[in-house]
């Protein structure tokens, strides 16, 4: 049962057994053995591992079914020749993991890295996999990482190929979501496959570079490669060897049992260490001289390649450091053309992208920023180098000019990693589907700072003490204490160092006056515990019933926070020297229980361990910068219910005439929506059509621009030659969000819906939503409905006006063909939902109605509303679309059939509060210039041709600007 795929299990077991002939009872005994298996049973663990690996495998040679589906599992059972009873047994013991996998947008490539080849050369990957399992990673998590890393490596060039090629790729993760684990896996697989020089660009600061170096040393490179020839039992031999003062050495550093070269593999030579960046080769050029058993052949020939040691360096993105590396490589001579190299760029949107203005280039010659220029030189020196960027904020990389061959545009592939299990991300802090009221995520984790609330800083400090006490309580009541080793609070108000010092002094003063040992402090903590933490506690975790039970742990938490004499640490710096703060070392310090005050250093790449309370009031107009400051995203095992975000909701931005008040929570939500839409677009166009990609990386920018209004018209995407002309959405909502702000334009658009409004003015019907994944209960809402022809809907949509270009244009191209040319849609069911009776505000529109008015607000600084359709309304409409011939889901609405779509129609008033909507409806009639007719259109699932192509582009020949536009597909 190799990665070649499952085989007939009974036959295989018979071949390996001593029995003369197979017996049916053998499989019954096997089933009984699996049924009786206890947790931790080795046989069950082996089968769980194999079944999960087969479930996850992308495009295997033995299957054409989709991964992570019951269909794939059924095929596995068929190949194993399992009977019904055994299938049920394994389905119960190893459920199919159906969570989404990585999404890949890729050029066509030449397959070379097969599963068989990966299995044959897997020394470092196998070691890394074993380490992950020892760390407690589940089979699904390990298989997911395996598949994602394999997807990257198979798209790199074959390191043994005769001609040189340097692939360029980008891997998109989530903020603090485990991207390092992915590129560690990629590095392991790549060096196993034959890459012999790995350069990791590990941030712009020594602290961040050192973190990455330690992680690779601990989990990939291992004790034996770090020690070299040094005897680990000889103290004198260990002088100058890394990590002798590290609390985790050697226990948590991977060990192979002997030097890899002794075990039949190859060693790794480190060209940088934890505390030493690349300064120059200590042993001169010899450190990069690769041994070649057959000097008549190039290094990349298999006879030489697999015997050579790998070299690994983790390098800071610093001009002088990279210049030194480039100059050393230049001395190597022709062999540089023979070295299969891999460059991993962590936080690839920071410093690596060329940000010079093309308009200022002289004579059309590209001028590069310092870091971008050095990376380009590296890639030119190493023609066999593969470049893979990693980031959580990909837009800067996506907008690199793909026509610049020496730049870093991910021309070969873009891979979007799935949201990991147990990750606290945007959905845990923002109720993206709740458009009217505060949702559960906001109620649980977010504490807004308004003018009316005061600054709430004392409350945030109290929350920090309380959550520390709750962690100690849980550790004493059976919750694993490892994640509680560090307990931190982050205070981020400004980038100015002087302000950090003043803020730290203020917090220290507040701490000293907080009276945590007296009745006043305990009364305050008891009140906060009762109204906040006890209300939102995770019932599956031990939590004291009253503050009295928690009180003994408060004193212990306060002592831990006070260790070293101060509860506060200032983490900032304008130069590298400022960042050398050894007190903040999560690796070497047993317990860091501190309040961290800082700015830039706390906004990118820096992992704040044990972060539980965040106090955030810093403003910025850069979307990627704001997203990277979301340090509250991450893994919070055992205490995710304790996480709190205190965030400014009325903060000042700008000065003088340009000053305005912004809601930082709303701004984060807007950016998160853009990112989620971007990921959704990638997932939608990732499936191949006729074995070929629908979208290549060079065609991604138009998809992004459609959903990112903050990208100005003069953005660099105007240089791209791919223009999106059609988006096909069978069974998928089309929901424009950027409606005009111009009052006259709004009034004209409302008039265009008059015929539909007249048709839906009758008695409302009950719309019944069946139980689904969001709720085990049936739900219902009231709505007025009517049916209109396809021609009538198309006429209305085509006549609508938009302020920033026709956002519907690519969709209208599709909808216009549903007259039978592409597919046939006869008519549309229009649903005009009503708000609940308690929240309903009604008014006549155009003398018709009355209609239920809906409140929506635009995202900060944008034309776009956050979400138009309500969650239950959209789910109901989707059930109609998904079950076109079923009457059970539709209540009193008609059965759709295959040629009827659904339109959700909302009279929307732009407002932040219901009182503003009531003012619009005060006379019983709403003015047409105050009502935005917002809509969601869902075409039938059958509204597509047999090719199933969802997107179409056209291409301009930049060398012939006046030439006709030609279709790209």
Keywords for this entry:
15% strand; 33% helix; six-stranded parallel beta sheet; 969 residues; alpha/beta
Short description, anyone?
With 969 residues, the protein is α/β, with parallel strands linked by helices. The protein is built from 29 helices and 29 strands.
Can you give a write-up of this model?
The chain is α/β, with parallel strands linked by helices. It has 29 helices and 29 strands. It is globular. The chain starts with 8 loop residues before the first helix and ends with a strand. Mean pLDDT is 85; it is low at 574-582, 705-721, 888-892 and 955-969.
Q: Choose one word for the global shape.
A: globular
Distance between the termini: 41 Å
Number of strands: 29
**Helix content range:** 25-40%
The stretches of 5 or more residues where confidence is low (pLDDT under 50) are 574-582, 705-721, 888-892, 955-969
Based on CA atoms alone, the radius of gyration comes out at: 30 Å
Percent in strands: 15-25%
Q: How many helical elements?
A: 29
Chain-averaged pLDDT: 85
Biggest pleated-sheet summary: 8 strands, mixed
Structural class: alpha/beta
The largest beta-sheet arranges its strands as 1-8-2-7-6-3-5-4
Write the layout of secondary structure elements.
Elements: H1 9-16, H2 24-35, H3 42-56, H4 70-80, H5 84-93, E1 103-106, H6 115-120, H7 123-134, H8 139-153, E2 168-172, H9 179-193, E3 197-202, H10 206-227, E4 268-270, H11 302-305, E5 310-315, H12 319-330, E6 341-346, H13 370-381, E7 385-391, H14 395-398, E8 413-416, E9 423-424, H15 426-429, H16 440-445, E10 446-449, H17 457-476, E11 487-492, H18 497-512, H19 519-533, H20 547-562, E12 568-571, E13 593-598, E14 611-616, H21 623-628, E15 634-635, E16 644-648, E17 651-653, E18 660-662, H22 664-685, H23 700-707, E19 722-727, H24 743-752, H25 754-759, E20 765-769, E21 779-789, H26 790-799, H27 809-815, E22 827-833, E23 842-845, E24 848-852, E25 854-856, H28 871-882, E26 900-910, H29 914-920, E27 932-938, E28 951-955, E29 966-967
Parallel strand pairs: 2-7, 2-8, 3-5, 3-6, 4-5, 6-7, 10-16, 11-13, 11-14, 12-13, 14-16, 22-26, 25-26
Antiparallel strand pairs: 1-8, 9-15, 17-18, 19-28, 20-21, 21-22, 23-24, 26-27, 28-29
Helix pairs in contact: 2-5, 3-8, 7-9, 8-9, 9-10, 12-13, 17-19, 17-20, 22-23
């Amino acid at each position: 049962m190799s990665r070649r795929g499952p085989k007939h299990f009974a036959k295989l077991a018979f071949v390996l057994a001593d029995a003369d002939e197979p017996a049916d009872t053998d499989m019954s005994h096997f089933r009984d053995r699996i049924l009786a298996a206890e947790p931790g049973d080795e046989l069950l663990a082996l089968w769980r591992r194999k079944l999960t690996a087969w479930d996850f495998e992308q495009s295997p040679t033995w299957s054409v079914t989709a991964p992570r589906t019951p269909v794939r599992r059924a095929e596995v059972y068929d190949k194993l020749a399992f009977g019904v009873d055994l299938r049920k047994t394994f389905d119960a013991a190893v459920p199919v993991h159906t969570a989404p996998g990585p999404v890949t947008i890729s050029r066509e490539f030449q397959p070379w890295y097969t599963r068989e080849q990966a299995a044959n050369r897997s020394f470092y990957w196998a070691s890394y996999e074993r380490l992950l399992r020892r760390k407690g990673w589940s089979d699904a998590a390990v298989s997911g990482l395996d598949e994602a890393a394999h997807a990257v490596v198979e798209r790199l060039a074959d390191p043994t190929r005769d001609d040189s090629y340097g692939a360029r790729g980008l891997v998109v993760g989530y903020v603090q979501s485990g991207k390092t684990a992915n590129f560690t896996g990629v590095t392991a697989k790549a060096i196993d496959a034959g890459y012999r020089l790995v350069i990791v660009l590990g941030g712009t600061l020594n602290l961040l570079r050192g973190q990455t170096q330690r992680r690779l040393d601990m989990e990939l490179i291992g004790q034996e490669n770090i020690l070299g020839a040094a005897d680990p039992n000889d103290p004198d031999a260990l002088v100058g060897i890394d990590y002798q003062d590290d609390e985790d050495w050697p226990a948590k550093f991977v060990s192979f049992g002997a030097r890899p070269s002794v075990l039949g593999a190859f060693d790794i030579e480190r060209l940088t260490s934890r505390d030493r960046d690349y300064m120059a080769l200590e042993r001169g050029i010899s450190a990069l001289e690769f041994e070649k058993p057959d000097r008549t052949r190039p290094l990349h020939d298999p006879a030489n390649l697999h015997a050579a040691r790998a070299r690994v360096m983790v390098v800071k993105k610093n001009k002088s450091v990279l210049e030194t590396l480039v100059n050393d490589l230049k001395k190597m001579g022709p062999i540089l053309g023979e070295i299969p190299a891999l460059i991993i760029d962590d936080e690839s949107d920071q410093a690596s992208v060329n940000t010079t203005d093309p308009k200022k280039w002289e004579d059309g010659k590209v001028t590069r920023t310092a870091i971008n220029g050095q990376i380009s030189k590296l890639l030119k020196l190493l023609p066999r180098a593969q470049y893979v960027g990693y980031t959580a904020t990909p837009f800067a990389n996506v907008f690199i000019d793909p026509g610049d061959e020496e730049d870093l545009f991910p021309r070969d592939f873009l891979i979007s990693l799935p949201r990991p299990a147990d990750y606290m991300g945007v959905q845990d802090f923002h109720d993206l589907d709740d458009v009217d009221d505060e949702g559960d995520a906001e109620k649980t984790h977010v504490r807004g700072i308004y003018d009316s609330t005061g600054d709430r800083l004392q409350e945030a400090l109290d929350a920090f003490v309380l959550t520390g006490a709750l962690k100690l309580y849980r550790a004493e009541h059976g919750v694993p204490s490892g994640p509680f080793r560090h307990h931190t609070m982050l205070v981020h108000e400004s980038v100015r160092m002087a302000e950090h010092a003043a803020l730290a002094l203020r917090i220290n003063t507040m701490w000293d006056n907080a009276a945590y040992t007296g009745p006043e402090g305990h009364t305050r903590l008891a009140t906060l515990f009762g109204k906040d933490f006890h209300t939102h506690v995770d019932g599956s975790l031990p939590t004291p019933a009253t503050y009295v039970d928690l009180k003994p742990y408060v004193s212990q938490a306060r002592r831990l926070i006070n260790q070293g004499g101060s509860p506060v640490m200032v983490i900032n710096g304008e130069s590298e020297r400022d960042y050398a703060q050894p007190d903040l070392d999560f690796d070497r310090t047993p317990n860091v229980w501190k309040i961290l005050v800082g700015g830039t250093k706390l906004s990118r790449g820096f992992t704040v361990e044990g972060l539980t309370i965040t106090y955030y009031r810093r403003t910025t107009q850069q979307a990627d910068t704001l997203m990277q400051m979301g340090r509250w995203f991450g893994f919070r095992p055992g205490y995710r219910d304790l996480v709190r975000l205190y965030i400014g909701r009325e903060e000042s931005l700008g000065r003088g005439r340009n000053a305005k008040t912004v809601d930082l929570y709303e701004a984060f939500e807007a950016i998160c929506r853009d990112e989620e839409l971007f990921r959704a677009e990638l997932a939608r166009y990732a499936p191949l059509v006729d074995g070929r990609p629908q979208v290549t990386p060079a065609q991604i920018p138009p998809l992004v621009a459609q959903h990112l209004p903050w990208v100005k018209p003069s953005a660099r995407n105007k240089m791209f030659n791919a223009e999106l002309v059609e988006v096909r959405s069978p069974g998928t909502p089309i929901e424009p969000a950027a409606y005009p702000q111009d009052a006259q334009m709004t009034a004209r658009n409302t008039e265009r819906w008059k015929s539909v409004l007249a048709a839906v003015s009758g008695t409302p019907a009950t719309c019944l939503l069946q139980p689904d994944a969001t709720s085990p209960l049936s739900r219902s809402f009231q709505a007025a409905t009517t049916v209109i022809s396809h021609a009538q809907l198309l006429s209305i949509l085509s006549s609508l006006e938009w302020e920033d270009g026709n956002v519907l244009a690519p969709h209208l191209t599709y909808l216009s063909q549903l007259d039978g040319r592409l597919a046939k849609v006869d008519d549309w069911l229009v649903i005009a939902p009503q708000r609940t009776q308690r929240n309903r505000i009604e008014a006549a529109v155009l003398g018709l109605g009355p209609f239920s008015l809906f409140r929506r607000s635009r995202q900060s600084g944008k034309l776009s509303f956050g979400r138009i359709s309500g969650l239950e309304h959209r789910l109901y409409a989707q059930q109609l679309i998904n079950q076109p011939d079923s009457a059970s889901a539709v209540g009193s609405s008609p059965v759709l059939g295959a040629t009827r779509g659904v339109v959700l129609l909302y009279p929307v008033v732009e407002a932040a509060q219901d009182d503003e909507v009531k003012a619009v409806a005060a006379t019983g009639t709403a003015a047409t210039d105050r009502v935005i007719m917002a809509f969601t259109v869902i075409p039938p699932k059958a509204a597509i041709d047999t090719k199933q192509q969802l997107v179409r582009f056209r291409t301009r020949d930049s060398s012939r600007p006046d030439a006709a536009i030609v279709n790209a597909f």
